[in-house]
């Protein structure tokens, strides 16, 4: 699976669970962690977990095993390492506090 296909798969999974304000950052040459960050949010703990579960399930179904998941039980900020793509699924209250878009403002945003 190419990293672009993985990005599209992850984006579609977040969209399918009605994630809000989905932002894709191109991290190539900026971060050694991943080539792309997907940042999105949900309105409740249950929705945040549903978005994360869908990302995990769709990645696994596509033959890309998830490397790690952090924060699933708390459902405030779930980080999902898919390899070339790292997904950040926030509860809407936490997203503005951490403001990753500002932290990584030198990374160009992408339209999917």
UniProtKB/TrEMBL annotation:
Tell me, which GO biological process terms does this entry list? cytosolic ribosome assembly; negative regulation of ribosome biogenesis; negative regulation of translation
Task: Tell me the lineage of the source organism.
Answer: Bacteria, Bacillati, Bacillota, Bacilli, Bacillales
| Gene source species | Planomicrobium soli
Provide one Gene Ontology cellular component: cytoplasm
What is the recorded function of this protein according to its Swiss-Prot or TrEMBL entry? Answer: Functions as a ribosomal silencing factor. Interacts with ribosomal protein uL14 (rplN), blocking formation of intersubunit bridge B8. Prevents association of the 30S and 50S ribosomal subunits and the formation of functional ribosomes, thus repressing translation.
Q: Which UniProt keywords apply?
A: Cytoplasm, Repressor, Translation regulation
* InterPro entries registered for this protein in UniProt: Iojap/RsfS/C7orf30, NT_sf
Q: Which family would the database say this protein is a member of?
A: Belongs to the Iojap/RsfS family.
- Subcellular localization: Cytoplasm
Is Transcription given among the entry's keywords?
Answer: no
Q: What is this protein called?
A: Ribosomal silencing factor RsfS
SUPFAM superfamilies listed in its UniProt record: Nucleotidyltransferase
Q: Does the keyword Zinc apply?
A: no
How does this chain assemble? Answer: Interacts with ribosomal protein uL14 (rplN).
Q: Which GO terms describe its molecular function?
A: ribosomal large subunit binding
